User: Fold this.
Amino acid sequence: MSGPVRIASGDLAATIAPLGAELQSLTDSAGREYMTDADPRWWTGHAPLLFPIVGRLNGDALRIDGREYAMKQHGFARRMAWELVEQTSASARFRLADDEQTRAVYPFAFAIVATYELTGSTLLTTITVSNPGDEPLPFSFGFHPAFAWPLPGGGDKLAHRIVFEQAERAPIRRLDADGLLAVTEPSPVEGKQLALAPDLFAADAMIWDAPASRRLAYRGENGAALDIAYPDLPMLGIWQKPGANFVCIEPWAGIADPAGFGGDFREKPGVMQLAAGEECSFRMDVTVHPA
Assistant:
């Protein structure tokens, strides 16, 4: 497997690892890092791509047509080597397709392409899933980027805010001890603003299964900010390990199993069905505003 791929524009530089086609670094022209420090005391991930599931399955089992296949949390794509199929100075494209290894745990033909492109102060990431098979492809997809908290030059960690595009009044979901959807609680968002604090994550991730927003801003007190747009993803998770120097802002098209769910994967909440010969895309844009 080849080494990390670096792309750059006048304002930003990004590094992507072929393992998982995972974004590992996003820096501005002054070299300031906007991604996690990946401190192993907390979590060594950076921005895994979640496919063909988001979250955890009941019993870590994917059930298709009466058969069970072992499937770990967030799926297998993040642990596989992707092929670098195209690279320019400011963009890179990676591809993963089904093979004997994937079909042993997920009996479907698929191809997934991850395209990273820097345009000015924005990193555009587009994921395209295609179905080369002759039957519908059931799947979910999610982004899982971990951004620096505090942002570089962003000031006091506890003064950071997430500002949603729309007011988010609906209750949020929480996970049980098995990582399954089990609890609903009132939204911690005040109007459009979420004041970040480690104790928000004492009960693990906050999950919006039907957020009103498709865009948000993650802001420090001194002007540093990330504008994050996710127009094609209808769910959102926000997560961290209390005490760590990151916060994950995770647009999803998919979600963990509800507690007690034991049905066919095709019937799982959040699973899409892609017709034979069709493709669909998911986009996340991150625009950097330095302090």
Observations:
- The chain has one domain: 5-289.
- The chain has one helix and 24 strands.
- The mean pLDDT is 97.
- The two ends are 37 Å apart (CA to CA).
